[in-house]
Amino acid sequence: MAKPLAIVTGASTGIGYHLADTAARNGYDLIVCADEPRIDQAAAEFRRHGVEAEAVQADLATLAGVDKLYAAIRGRPVEALMANAGRGLGRAFLDQDFGEVRRVIDTNITGTIYLLQKVGRDMRARNAGRILITGSVAGFMPGSFQAVYNGTKAFIDSFSFALRNELKDTEVSITLLMPGPTETEFFERADMLDTKVGTQTKDDAGAVAQTGFDAMLRGDADVVYGLKNKLQTTMATVTPNTVLAEMHRSMAEPGTAKR
Question: Where does the Ketoreductase domain lie (predicted)?
C-alpha cells in the first residue's frame, strides 16, 4: 500500500526541516518545499528513512510559487499539510525597505493562505486530512522593531482558529503551532543578531517540531512549545498592549544585545 503523503513548506532548515524529518520517520512520503537549493539536500536526507521525498524549489511569496508546489501533488491525496514557511524582518518599520516588508507579508500570509485554500479544498472534498500551521507566540505581542512580522503572525494565529471552526463538522483538523524564539537561521536572516532576542538561548527546533507534529496527529486546536512561552501567552492576554510593546522593544531593538 502507498504511504500517506505529507507536504512541508520551509523544509530546508529549522522547524520545517525537523517537521519533515519527523514525518518521514513516521512513514510519510514527502513533498518538501523551500525557496533555496538546499531543499534538494534536505530531501535526500529524508529519503534515508525509506520514504519518497520530492523537493520543490519555489518562492511561496508568489501565487506562481504556490501553484508550482500544488502541481507537484499530481492529484495524490494529501494526508498532512504542514504550512511552516515564514520570513522575519527586524529593525524599525520606517527604516525598512518596503520590498522586504511586502515579501514578509506575502510569504507569511498571502502564500500561506493560498496554499491552505487549495489543499484544504481537496481535504474537505475527501473529508479527511490534517493541517499544521506554524504561527508564533509573537502574534500575542505588538512587535516593536519587528512590527510587520508580529502582525503577520497575529493574522495567522487568528486565521487558524477561524478555519478550524469552519471545518468543525468535517474530518479535517487544523492545528496551530506557536513556537517562541527557536534555534534556527531566522534571526540571522531577519538581521537581528545585535538584539537581545537574537542572542539569547533559544528552544531546540527538533523539540518544537515534534511537539507540533504530535499535536497535529491528535487533532489539537493549538500548542505552545515550552513553559516560558505558555506563561508569556497567558500574561499577554491580560497585559495592556502599550506595556507589551515596550517589553518587546527591550528584546528586539537593535543594540539590546550589548545592554
Answer: 4-184
| Measured CA distances, 18 to 78, 120, 221, 242 (Å) | 19, 23, 21, 36
How many whole angstroms separate alpha carbon 182 and alpha carbon 211?
13
CA 75 to CA 158: how far, in whole Å?
30
What structural domains does the chain harbor?
5-258 (3.40.50.720)
Q: How far apart (Å, rounded) are the C-alpha atoms in residues 16 and 10?
A: 5
Cell of 128: 479527511
Going across the sheet that includes 222-224, the strands are 53-57, 29-34, 5-9, 80-83, 129-134, 172-178, 222-224
- pLDDT for the residue numbered 75: 95
- How confident is residue 2, by pLDDT bands cut at 50, 70 and 90? confident
Rounded Cα distance between 32 and 39, Å, is 7
How many angstroms separate the first and last alpha carbons of the chain? 58
For 118-173, the pLDDT digits (tens) are 999 999 999 999 999 999 999 999 999 999 999 999 999 999 999 999 999 999 99
Take residue 200 and report the three cell numbers written for it: 539569547
Helices (H), 37-97: 38-46, 63-71
* CA 207 to the chain's CA centroid: 15
Residue 164 to residue 136: CA distance in whole angstroms: 17
Residue 151: name the closest of 91, 208, 97, 109 by CA.
Answer: 109
* Res 1: pLDDT: 59
